[in-house]
Amino acid sequence: MKELRVAELRAAEPKEQGDLILTGRPIIYDEPTTIKAPFGEYIEVIKRGALDKADITDVRLLYNHDMNKIPLARTPKTMQLSIDPAGLLMRAELPNTEDGKSVHTAVGRGDLSGMSFAFKVPKGGSHYDAKTNTRTITKIEKVYECSITPFPAYPQTSVEARSQIEDIWKELKAPERQAAKIKLNKILSRSVL
Prior knowledge:
By secondary structure, this protein is α+β, with helices and mostly antiparallel strands. The protein has helices at residues 98-109, 159-170, 177-189; strands at residues 2-11, 21-28, 33-37, 40-46, 60-63, 73-74, 79-84, 87-93, 114-120, 126-129, 134-137, 142-149. Helix 2 packs antiparallel against helix 3 (177-189).
């Protein structure tokens, strides 16, 4: 299942005219995040090492997950991703186009300050604890894209994952929610694209 999450971003001062460099950390380990979903909220944590065997070889940099526009950068030529003890680091050289200049300027001014990412968790790569209402991700199989986003507080799972969870949640009333968390655990545990 393809999922999206949010992190921070910075613009580097151009060293040469037309040099549009962005750096950021789209994935941060061991930082609990509140995921707001239509059925309610839960906490999510990406554990240290979750990216150890992840495929980060063909990742695009987009603006706001818009796949209808030309990517701003792509690994490995114009974007470099590296895994370190804190998570995933990103360095991207934006094109000298109106979109590239606009995004770089907005990041530099602080108008855009967030990053989001789309990813896949393999079967058995996450666990949901109903008692603490926490999903722990221990393995990410693939990072599809990183996006620069105007709303860094916008964590969204994919439509596919949300629709599965929403269907169960709609069937239940407040006293049945604890049992629903157990069902959600089962759904999240068998994450399949």
